[in-house]
Amino acid sequence: MIDAVAYAIPAFVLLVIVEALSFRLKPHHEQRGYELKDAATSMTMGAGSQVVGFFWKFAVVVVYAGVYTLTPFELDPTNLWTWVLLFFADDLAYYWFHRCHHRIRLLWASHVVHHSSQYFNLTTALRQSWTPMGGMPFWLPLVLMGMPPWMIFLQQSINLTYQFFIHTERVRYLPGPLEFWFNTPSHHRVHHGSDEIYLDRNYGGILIIWDRIFGSFAAETAPVTYGLTQNIRTYNPLRVAFHEYAAIWRDVRASRTWRDRLGYLFGPPGWGKDLTGPDAQVTPEKNAKEPT
């Protein structure tokens, strides 16, 4: 099974070095650049996610292979149109995976790791979850369609590899047609914004057209404030990985009704709190302090 992410790791490391040097040689007053502890935390989270993902993928392979043997459909991997269908089907699956991980708190507890940095650079792309277990159901429809699991895993890795390159402030905008169809650094800066106008926008993987179709698109119209609406102020990888699970447990334990318990688990982030927007994740007050 070919994993494009694993093969791309040397290029990731080289480009991180190049980007960091570019901020040293040509800083920009509106771009935050790099902070050593933050970048180290992001890369630690990335290394941990690769270890966890290696073992978790075995379980996913078993489930997908079992479902594949039961489906009456079988798409031909030697047919070009199978790959075209896979490209769009995988990207659509990623869109809904990503959107659900922002709108269901138990899933957000995993994905919040990726948004916990107050910087936006190539190391931010590496800040990944250590609890990837919520992703399995979203690609099952592709298996049921008759997609061989190895093709799905390959396309998933291609999608994630593409997304590494859009975590940068150094590229402002791409030519118009590319900005319309594809997820770009500008669109993804919006996604990482904690500003109210940017919350819960631009979920796309490779393509941005799903956001345009499903009404979750927002253009970059003002400088972006990165991070969470209430930042966690830590570089400790264990706290970064599990802080939201601890917060869920505190809320559930303090709840008096099953409605509240279920709301804190399966409602949107910020459920039961003083929300100010249709997709606000938590209370809008921002913490301006840097992590310690």
From TrEMBL:
Any idea where this protein resides?
Endomembrane system
Q: Which domain of life is it from?
A: Bacteria
One GO cellular component term: endomembrane system
Where are the coiled-coil regions?
none
Q: Which GO terms describe its biological process?
A: lipid biosynthetic process; membrane lipid metabolic process
- Where, by residue number, does the polypeptide cross the bilayer? 6-25, 46-68, 80-97, 136-154
Its record classes its membrane topology as: Multi-pass membrane protein
A Pfam family found in this protein is FA_hydroxylase
Keywords assigned by UniProt, alphabetized: Lipid metabolism, Membrane, Oxidoreductase, Transmembrane, Transmembrane helix
Tell me which residues make up the Fatty acid hydroxylase domain. 83-216
One GO MF term attached to the UniProt entry: glyceryl-ether monooxygenase activity
> PANTHER family this protein is in?
ALKYLGLYCEROL MONOOXYGENASE (PTHR21624:SF1), STEROL DESATURASE-RELATED PROTEIN (PTHR21624)
Q: What is this protein called?
A: Sterol desaturase family protein
* Protein source organism: Natronoglycomyces albus
